[in-house]
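Table 4 source record.
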Amino acid sequence: MNGKTIEQLPSYREDLQTPGLVLGTAGLGGAWGEIDKEESLRTLLYALEQGIERLDTAPAYQNAEKIVGEVLGQWRGGKPIVSTKVGKLPGQADDDSLNNYDLEVMEKSIEDSLARLGCDQLDLLFLHEPQKVPAEMIREVVAFLESLTVTGKVKSIGLGGIVSTAYYPYIEKGVFDVVMGFNNLNACTLTGIKKEIPYFRQQGLILYQGSALNMGLLGNRYPQYIQDPPGWLSLKSVENAQKAYKIAKEHGLELSTLAHRYLLSIKEVDHLVIGARNMAQLKSTLADCRQGVLPREIFDELTDQVK
């Protein structure tokens, strides 16, 4: 398989069965600013009470792993599937200086994650930001990750971030089970579906898709980002966000609601990763998601505008 794109546009979820929800814990752990720990604990417990069966965390999400561990200790329902990451040290998620793929450092990171989460085995371990692994280290890093499943420390391994073609031989050998997309498929960008996602699907990878709001561009930062776009945002994404905003208003929807429901409507997405910094944000997002997939005509209209 050479990684060529199989289809160019997202497929509509004809069966109307929405993908599972994964609650990302970056905001609740303090990765984007100060938090109220008790509020984060209550929010996570509420998520589990509402039927969310998957949580995603990472050392780089400040105190997220520790908070998730406390919640798991309190929760008396069915055990959720918890994913964490390796390759980035504790701290602020956007601090590039924290990336470290030294094998001894990663081994200690995993032991620390197990301790913080209070478990003997990780359900799913993502390689954090695989695009930042030096090319000469990829082979040994992948071999290290494989060894974790042999020893039983990890059930499944995945790739969390931009996946270069350097990982394709390992994907084709069945090394990885899951890939988590970020800012490459949502209501203002379809770059992922035009490039790597069809390949991942053909290879049988499970797709976790995050950033439905594209780091706030389709959410509460819309006015700010439209007026003064940050350097990491492409001009096309900003233009597409304005098109999405217009479509949302024409159909009586909040922009965030349109964005969440759009990703829920995409057949290629297996699990939608949602985020929240507090209870109010989680309740709002769950209210969006409970409305289910978009009507086909709105889905097609939005796809046509942002393709």
